[in-house]
Specification:
By secondary structure, the chain is of the alpha+beta class. It has one domain: Nuclear Transport Factor 2, Chain: A. The chain is built from five helices and six strands. A six-stranded mixed β-sheet has the order 2-1-6-5-4-3. The longest helix has 14 residues. The protein is globular and about 40 Å long. The termini are far apart. The N terminus is likely disordered.
């Protein structure tokens, strides 16, 4: 089962060279989508704990990769967000959102600032360059994956 998730992430990442070779803004593109609103709604839902939205928005193949290499499936990440070890996120703010649209696949890149702490009080503060994959199915966009990298220029 993990091979399927890794395979899905590899497929998403295979579009990276194409995505970074494009220059598209977060302005409506590819069917008039408002990518900035989609990105903010996604992260606001994680910050505020709107798990009903996230459960519907995350594709079954969703994969989250943290900067430390930890990888979570949709079920694993939602379990964390529902559980007692849920992180406290005071700020989860994406900026410089860029959309790279290829038909029913879109890659969103952004710079996200996080302020908060884990359940043990350890700081989660940082600035990250983030790669988010979404797919369109039956006219609706679904999150398929996230890869977060620390912004080393901000140290």
């Amino acid at each position: 089962m993990r091979a399927i998730h890794v395979g899905a992430l590899a497929l998403i990442l295979s579009f990276a060279p194409l995505a970074f070779g494009q220059t598209k803004s977060a302005a409506p593109a590819g069917g008039g989508e408002d990518w900035k609103t989609l990105d903010h709604k996604w992260l606001d839902s994680e910050r505020t704990g709107d798990l009903d939205y996230l459960d519907k928005f995350f594709a079954d193949s969703y994969v989250l990769v943290f900067p430390n290499g930890l990888t979570y499936t949709k079920a694993q990440w939602l379990e964390i967000l529902r559980g007692p070890d849920r992180p406290t996120l005071l700020v989860l703010n994406p900026e410089n959102i860029q959309a790279h649209v290829f038909g029913n696949v879109a890659i969103l890149t952004d710079h996200t600032t996080i302020k908060g702490h884990d359940s043990k009080g350890n700081s989660l503060d940082g600035e990250f360059n983030v790669f988010r994959g979404v797919i369109k199915k039956n006219g609706k966009w679904y999150a398929t994956g996230v890869v977060m990298n620390p912004d080393l220029t901000k140290k």
